[in-house]
Amino acid sequence: MRVLSIAALAGAATLLLTATATSSAASPGGAQNLGDPDYGVCRGTDPRCYHDWGNFDPAKGYRLLVYSRTAGPRHAHLGTPLGPGLNPPLNDDNVAVKAVIKLGQENGFAVDYTEDVAQLSSAGRLLPYNAVMFLSTTRDTLDDAAQTALRQYIRAGGGFAGVHNAFGTEYSWPWYEGLLGNANFYDHSANQPGTVVTVNRRDASTQGLPQRWAFTDEWYNLIPYPTRVRVLAEVDEATLARGVRGNLGHPGHGPHHPVSWCQYYDGGKAWLTTLGHDVKAWTDEPLEGDQYFVQHLAGGIKSVLGMTPFCR
After folding, report:
1. Where is the signal peptide (predicted)?
2. CATH tag, 6-305
3. CA gap 264, 174 in Å, rounded
4. Which of 189, 195, 239, 260 is deepest in the core (most CB within 10 A)?
């Protein structure tokens, strides 16, 4: 059993209350931001919120588990639902999963994938992986056992990558909202071209990216709005020809509209992006800026796996 001293406990309590807030700005008007809860865990950009208990040995290589189960609307980039078990046969339209597998082959990490919640039923099933990716999961995709396992895994120092509709998942679970950076999907603008602004170019996921780059997405509006995170990229709302107002009326976030960020959370690491809606972003079909999206995604995965420095 790991026993903490009184001093260590006091330090952890201090971190819990004061983890540095580095989000670029608060949401305009205040009402869109539902406060800054601590979720009862240490969270923020201070690496002392991370539990390095030696569970992930680089000598064993790096492994990512991609989870893409949907319990509601399903994004076209996921394609047809996958069969049970681990690594079931893929169809031609499962383009996002195939793209992540290719990223692994090109960047030196192994990828397993599943839409079977039983594969997430215990922390023991997850600990062989350096990180777990939720790839456009939808609504309540976890049962009670999988929720417990994910929380134990993160507390053991595990990594989490949330991509696109990972923000439209597990709405009724506050801990998961905290894992996303105190953020949740509310609505989105029309799928349209816009300009991504790289606001932090030190992180592994943003090194080498242009300061501004074109991309097409359905730009997510968020309630609540991320806090205590390191914002990595934003969308310039002024470049959205069809406007940022969401289909449910959200007016957007003004001059600081985040699309990617990172944080330490409850002992683990989380790298997050709302980008990735368009099918073309996951295929060889031309889409302006898709090479930068792929570069951004690969860097984020490598950082949360532990292959490169995290959340700089």
Report:
1. 1-25
2. 3.40.50.880
3. 16
4. 260
Residue 34: per-residue pLDDT: 54
- E strands, the chain, are 43-44, 63-67, 110-114, 131-135, 159-163, 185-198, 212-222, 230-236, 258-265, 268-273
Residue 109: left if φ>0, alpha if ψ -120 to 50, beta else—which one?
beta
Residues contacting 96, CB < 8 A, separation 6+: 68, 75, 77, 78, 79, 135, 136, 276, 282
The answer, yes or no, to whether the previous bond of 286 is cis (omega within 30 of 0) is no
Task: Give the HSE-up count for residue 234: Cα atoms under 13 Å, Cβ half-sphere.
Answer: 22
pLDDT mean values, one per 10 residues, the chain (312 residues): 36 38 37 68 96 90 97 94 97 97 98 97 95 96 97 97 96 95 94 97 95 97 95 98 95 96 98 97 95 97 97 95
For residues 86 and 116, the answer to whether their CB atoms sit within 8 Å is: yes
- Domains of the chain by residue range: 6-305
With a CB cutoff of 8 Å and minimum separation 6, the contacts of 118 are 84
The answer to whether the beta carbons of residues 223 and 246 sit under 8 Å apart is: no
What predicted TM-score, i.e. pTM, was given to this entire model? 0.89
CA dist., res. 103 & res. 64, Å (int): 11
Q: Which run of H or E residues covers position 10?
A: helix 6-18
